[in-house]
Amino acid sequence: MSFDENESSPPLEVPKEALSEEALRGIIESFIQREGTDYGREEIAFETKCNQIKKQIDKGDVKIVFDPDTETVGLMNTRDWQRRQKS
C-alpha cells in the first residue's frame, strides 16, 4: 500500500459534545474573525455573533469540521456539509 501525497482525506464532523465549552468558543471566535462576516448596515456585537453561531450549532444548522489535510477545525453549514459528503 503506497501513500499518495496528492490524495486528500475527507473532512470529519466533530460532535460538539466532544469539545469543551472553551474549545467550542475558540472555534466560534476564530470563525468570526477569519470570515469577517458582514451582517448588513448595522454592526452586530461580537458577543451577539458568537451566540448566534452557537445557536446554529446547537440546532444542527452548522457543523464543526476537522480537515485532516490542513489539521484545522472550522465551521460549515449543514447544506454545504451534505453536498461535500456526496462528492
Count of DSSP-assigned helices: 3
Q: What is the CATH fold-level name?
A: Arc Repressor Mutant, subunit A
**Overall structural domain count:** 1
Order of helices and strands: EHHEEH
Backbone structural class:
alpha+beta
Looking at the overall shape, the CATH architecture is Orthogonal Bundle
Q: Describe the global form.
A: globular
Mean pLDDT: 86
Biggest β-sheet, characterized? 3 strands, antiparallel
Helix residue percentage: 40-55%
Q: First CA to last CA: what distance?
A: 24 Å
Rg (C-alpha, Å): 15 Å
Strand content: 15-25%
Tell me the number of strands.
3
Biggest sheet, strands in spatial order? Answer: 1-2-3
Descriptive tags:
3 helices, alpha+beta, Arc Repressor Mutant, subunit A, 44% helix, globular, 16% strand
Mind explaining what this structure looks like?
The structure is a single chain. By secondary structure, the protein is of the alpha+beta class. The protein has a single domain (12-86), classed as YehU-like (Arc Repressor Mutant, subunit A, Orthogonal Bundle). Helix content is 44%, strand content 16%. It is built from 3 helices and 3 strands, in the order βααββα. The protein has helices at residues 21-35, 46-59, 78-86; strands at 12-13, 62-67, 72-77. A 3-stranded antiparallel beta sheet has the order 1-2-3. A hairpin with a 4-residue loop joins strand 2 (62-67) and strand 3 (72-77). Helix 1 (21-35) packs across helix 2 (46-59). The longest helix has 15 residues, at 21-35. It starts with 11 loop residues before the first strand and ends with a helix.
